[in-house]
Amino acid sequence: MEHAKPLLNYIRKHVTLSEEEEVFLCSKIDYRKYLKGQYILQQGDISTTQCFILSGCTKMFFVDNDGQEHIVMFSIEDWWTSDLGSFVSQTPSDFNVQCLEASEVIQFPYETIESLFEGIPKLERFFRKIIEQAFVASQKRIIQNFSLSAKERYQLFHSKYPQIEQRIPQYMLASYLGFTKEFLSKVKKELLKP
Amino acid sequence: MEHAKPLLNYIRKHVTLSEEEEVFLCSKIDYRKYLKGQYILQQGDISTTQCFILSGCTKMFFVDNDGQEHIVMFSIEDWWTSDLGSFVSQTPSDFNVQCLEASEVIQFPYETIESLFEGIPKLERFFRKIIEQAFVASQKRIIQNFSLSAKERYQLFHSKYPQIEQRIPQYMLASYLGFTKEFLSKVKKELLKP
Fold first, then answer.
1. d(CA B24, CA B33)
2. Where are the membrane-spanning stretches (chains A, B) (predicted)?
3. How far is B165 from chain A (nearest CA, A)?
């Protein structure tokens, strides 16, 4: 229950739960620590949990047929990570989720999530809103990749997620933005010019 | 109510509504016809409805700063269209939704959707599942663009959506797949070779 406090604060921003409901919720979730470099999910495995991050930083990525890594998302405190498609359909995942820092997470296991919704129907609303946000962000990213220049994409990330930029290696940010590391350095140097 | 039948059949696959709930639902939605070429939503306008398609075919696309059109989704009968981001946040849309055929739709207006959820809470679950599907499809598409060859992308579309391929011009399919029209012709010719 102590570990779940940041999650409960986060949920309170969206829906109001009674004390009994909070206790019931806590009986359905798990707390878990990961070391830096450990995987929460590996490409090819079935995603068995949805994770809320209490502390730390993760990257979600996939490796294509040529062995190239493509980063689709970074997650830090008060955000979520998992391959929702694999979780919902219980089929092998297309993604890896790896910890870039030692991380603490709250896990919603697949086996208990239905009973959680049955016990607290208003959590359906909460999860609908979370997934809406994720879907909208995913669509915005598709558009930005087409319609913004490399420089604009970096500027947008820099202004929107300054706290993430400080915590990840430059080559990972370059991968996320679809650049080479060298190109990212060039873009950043140009922006520093008066 | 008569017009809403396909929607009610579709909802029944996900949740069970009582007769009173179906009547209440029908009091909160609108039926609307569009001509071929008309817009359900124009880039820059605020999306005021979520649309379920009864008949017809639509494309969702955006135009980048260079005037280039990028198609992100086709929708036909028993599927949805709207810019969810614009709808949820009531901010100007990044997308256009245009009818490629004369189309009939059921519209869920922004002003009534909250009262709909209040009256029938289990619709939260229904919409959560629809958005999950859309989000998962959007993530799969990002991966496919990175990890499949042009030929494989066409083959996947061809096997998954044969009914859409027959209804849309080739140049639009090419835009959706990220090819030129000429390149799509070449890919199709190669696949026809014994």
1. 22
2. none
3. 22
> What domains can you pick out in chain B, each with its CATH number?
5-120 (2.60.120.10)
- For residue B89, the chain A residues in CB contact (below 8 A) are 136
ipTM of the modeled complex: 0.79
Output A146 or B47, whichever has higher pLDDT: B47
Question: Nearest CA of chain A to the CA of B132: how many Å?
Answer: 7
Q: Find the residue in B nearest to A93 (Cα).
A: B140
Q: What spatial distance separates the first Cα and last Cα of chain B, rounded to whole Å?
A: 51
pLDDT in tens, B76-110: 999 999 999 899 899 999 999 999 999 999 999 99
Which backbone phi and psi does B176 adopt, to 5 degrees? Answer: -60, -40
Cβ distance B62 to A146 less than 8 Å, yes or no, reads: yes
Chain B residue numbers touching A70 (CB-CB < 8 A): 143, 146-147
pLDDT confidence of residue B81: 94
Q: For residue A21, give the DSSP letter.
A: H
How many other C-beta atoms are found inside a 10 Å radius of the C-beta of residue B8? Answer: 14
Q: Is B125 on the interface with A (CB under 8 A)?
A: yes
CA distance A88 to chain B (A): 8
The structure's pTM equals 0.85
